[in-house]
Structures are given as C-alpha cells and as structure tokens.
Amino acid sequence: MKKIIPIILIGLLSVILFTGYSKNENDSIVLRFAYASNSQPVKDAMAEFGKLLTEKTNGEVTVEYFPDNQLGGERELIELTQTGAVDITKVSGSALESFSEKYSIFGLPYLFEDETHFYKVMDSELVKSIYESTESLGFVGLTYYDSGQRSFYMTEKPIEKPSDLNGKKIRVMQSQTAIKMVQLLGGSPTPMDSGEVYTSLQQGILDGAENNEFAITEAGHGEVAKYYSYDEHTRVPDILVMNKETLDKLTESQRQAVYEAAKESTAFEKVVWKEAVEQAKERAENEFGVIFNEVDKKPFQEAVQPLHDEFANKDGFKQLYEDIINLKENK
C-alpha cells in the first residue's frame, strides 16, 4: 500500500495542477515545491528560499512543500515539474543529464580543482547556458546548492589507489559520466536508486558506493560501510529548477523576486553546509565507527583523463570545458 499512495498522488497532481500554480483564499500565488530525501542543510536552504520569496513579494507569492519523496524520486519530480504538476523541485545535476546533455559536464571527475574553483564557476555566467538548456522541455534552472565532494566508501577495506577498485561493485547515480568514471578506475559501476543502497551494501550486492559524508550519517550507510576514502572525484551541484510556464505567468517583479530568493538561498546554504559537513564527519566517526582516510589523487586523475579528453573535444562542450578550466585560481 505504501507504494500505491505516491502513484495516486502523482496522478491527481498531474490532472489537478497541470495548469501550474494555484491561489489560496487570499488570492496569493502558491508555488508547489516537491523534493526527494536531502541532507539537512539543503532542506534548510529550500525553506529559506520560500521564506525569502514570501518576504520579497509581500506575501503575493508563497511556497507549499512536498518533502522527502512524497511525490516520487528525482526522475519523477523532474517530469512533474516539466508538465507543471509541480512548480519547483531540487535535484542532483546528474539526474538532469538525461534531459540535457549539458548537465553531464558536472559529473566529469576532477573538473573542479577544489571548493574555491567550484564556487567560482557556479557563481559565474558560465552556468546560465546550462540552466537554459532545458527551456524547450518546459523548465529552467534557477540556482545551485552545494552538495559537497563525492568520494568512495567501502564495506571491507579503504580505497587507497585505483587498483583497489578492480572488480568491485560500486553504486553510482543514473549518469553515463559516473558509469564511465568507475569503469576507467577499474570498478564495476552499478546504477541504483539511493533508497536501495543500504540493503545492497548490507547484503553484499554492492562492495561500495560514492557520495558525500551525509550518505554515511543521514542514510545510515556508515552502519554497513566503515571505510571512507577522500579521493574527492566529483563535486556535482544540486540544481533548483522551475516550470517555465509558471515562471512566465508571474509578473516581472515576482520573477525578479524568485531569482533573488534563489540566489540568496544559495549564499545561505554555503554557510550551513560547511558547518553540517564537519558535524556529519564527527558523527560518522563517533557513532558509526567510520574510518576516514586521505588518498593521493594524482593516480585517480590520470586514470580518468580519457573523460577529460572526450569533453575537451566534444561538440557543444569544448568551449564550456575550456572556460571552466580557465577559471582555476592558478590560471
């Protein structure tokens, strides 16, 4: 019965809300914001977005939330936003790859030199073309949220060099770039929904996974995977997306408020994210007994170089790739 209810809700929303936002008894606009499971700092940032939007529009526009997979996983939420059944959602940049190939560049391992480089790129005009690449599909990007670095964590022993991944079954997101990355590192990539990872690690279906520190604590993976290795292969941002028709129906001042609230919620999230990551790592060590280790990243970078060569010479990506690389601090 638990699996039937979300499907019914999705069906009802698709019919009832297809025309976009609704209005409440005060005649204010109510935007429906649905999201899947998330770490607390991202949840706080999404709540901040709604608060800011209400303030900036003097209550003309408010936000109603459908949290924690109530209306489905990230793929379903993108599709609901695409049709207008949902007005806004927040998903991983990797989940958007199948809607716009441009988002695949975020999954390129070691694209960003460090956090500073990541922020410099994501706060620049370079991402505008990526956000707008889904406009013809019915939705556009508003802003990003930091989702941290992604590293490998294992059930049996830590990863110290690429050869430690040989033959190991590693959970990855539904991303062709992530699949190719693990293959180049010698592992066996296993695309899987996030909700299945814990049991798969526990039962030995998976040898490991790759994610940020919150997967260890929030999802409880630290109970079955005790070795977290900081190879820091990717920094895939979360993306806040909005139905294009809904956005266009707003007045010019309301649209401006949407973009301002989105940008300011990103600044807010950067602060709470850093604080929460340190707390998550401490909890992982003290409560779950997880062992964290640093690795020499150079062998990993060399192993995935073919992916960089592919993007550097790929039609539609060459200039974007070069522009991102040229924003490194040492350039």
Automatic annotation (TrEMBL):
It holds the Pfam family DctP. Keywords: Signal. NCBIfam families: dctP, TRAP_S1. PANTHER family: DICARBOXYLATE-BINDING PERIPLASMIC PROTEIN (PTHR33376:SF2), PTHR33376. This is TRAP transporter substrate-binding protein.
